[in-house]
Design goal:
Blueprint: H1 7-28, H2 41-51, E1 56-60, H3 72-80, E2 84-88, H4 96-121, H5 128-153, H6 158-182
Antiparallel strand pairs: 1-2
Helix pairs in contact: 1-4, 1-6, 4-5, 5-6
Length: 186
């Protein structure tokens, strides 16, 4: 089966997921629980502002050498706290246009990957169950597994991850159903 025959489901599923995510975030708004306000945001902002950190990811206490973890001063610093990972963005309002375009590009990549694997695993005469299973599973991996890594390495709360995995399940279902609907020879 030529890969060109899968461009329509790739684009349609990516746009469908992109629109569904907009609805989930703007209408249902359950992701507002993903973020919490610092107890004294102004004081924390002033303290961070003094150092003028460039955009990036910072850890506190800073310790990248595993040998330092045995240093009593470093251990005391961790015990005293706070222990944090801080992502610093550029100053100014968020540039949602750029972020939404990047999200659409990611959706296209996820759908493209699902199409690539499905093309090699299935033929034009594939059953609906197989199409849905292959493309939906790959979409779930693309949209959801990174959240599990963030829970492990970035201490993202489990409740945030569960909400994101719910989204990933919806996106996987949308992707699989679009491929089922637009599969060549269906």
């Amino acid at each position: 089966m030529p890969f060109g025959s899968l461009w329509l489901p790739v684009v349609v599923s990516a746009v469908a997921v992109w629109l569904a995510s907009a609805l989930l975030h703007m209408v249902l708004k359950y992701h507002r629980a993903d973020y919490r306000r610092l107890p004294d945001e102004a004081a924390v902002a002033a303290a961070l502002g003094k150092g003028s950190p460039a955009p990036g990811v910072y850890t506190m206490p800073y310790c990248v050498d595993p040998a330092q973890m045995k240093d009593p001063a470093v251990v005391a610093s961790y015990e005293r706290g706070p222990v944090a990972m801080i992502t610093v963005l550029r100053n100014g309002p968020p540039k949602m246009g750029k972020t939404l375009l990047q999200w659409l590009a990611f959706c296209l990549l996820a759908s493209f990957t699902a199409a690539y694997v499905a093309r090699h695993a299935l033929g034009p005469d594939a059953t609906g169950t197989a199409i849905l299973r292959i493309t939906g599973t790959l979409a779930f991996v693309a949209y959801g597994y990174g959240e599990l890594q963030d829970m492990i390495w970035r201490a993202i709360p489990g409740s945030n991850v569960l909400r994101a995995l719910f989204d990933a399940l919806l996106y996987a279902l949308i992707t699989g159903l679009v491929f089922l609907w637009l599969w060549p020879g269906a």
